[in-house]
Amino acid sequence: MEEIQQPKESALSKEAKPQKSAVREIAEAVLVAVALAFLIRYFLFQPFYIPSGSMEPTLKPLDRIIVSKVNYWFSEPALGQIIVFRYPVDPSRDFVKRVIAVGGETVKIRNNQVYVNDRPIPEPYLPPNLRMSDYGPVTVPEGKFFVMGDNRNHSDDSRIWGFVPRDNVIGQAVFLYWPFDRIRTLGGT
């Protein structure tokens, strides 16, 4: 049986390899790190901070969240999920709200209760003693979403400016990472 061996480098070929300087190695490592951070931020996950109290008590001003852009590659936003989207009136601004209804569903509010297709929806995340004005009924067009803040009395949402087009959805809020004592996942209802 013959033994296979790797060819040995000659002393001449070892000397022919240029040595990388420490500066070049650090620059390459930084470049790779920046490229990875760019890919992760723009295609997979993006951090956001909460600027207002429209989602209280679920999210408070200055909370920091992670938004997954991957979650909606193969599925659509669903009832109760918290989404971040480009504001339909001014797409340069990002908003965070909860999905209340999707295309084809009818929304109305009567006596402080939200109904979707004439059925009351459970909303355990709402603050106690919340008062909402009657609204609707309105039918959500296909490819759009009806969204509301959890702090309904102080939320600028679909009741005021209409529906969110699917193309405006950035992703699903999946994780609250700051402040440290409120770290948790952000699921649906």
From TrEMBL:
InterPro entries: LexA/Signal_pep-like_sf, Pept_S26A_signal_pept_1, Pept_S26A_signal_pept_1_CS, Pept_S26A_signal_pept_1_Lys-AS, Pept_S26A_signal_pept_1_Ser-AS, Peptidase_S26. One of its GO terms (molecular function) is serine-type endopeptidase activity. It is an enzyme of class 3 (hydrolase). The chain crosses the membrane at residues 26-45. Residues 24-178 form the Peptidase S26 domain. Its EC number is 3.4.21.89. Keywords: Hydrolase, Membrane, Protease, Transmembrane, Transmembrane helix. Signal peptide: none annotated. The keyword Lyase does not apply. The active site is at S54, K97. One of its GO terms (cellular component) is plasma membrane. It is found in: Cell membrane; Membrane. PANTHER family: CHLOROPLAST PROCESSING PEPTIDASE, SIGNAL PEPTIDASE I. Belongs to the peptidase S26 family. This is Signal peptidase I. The gene is lepB.
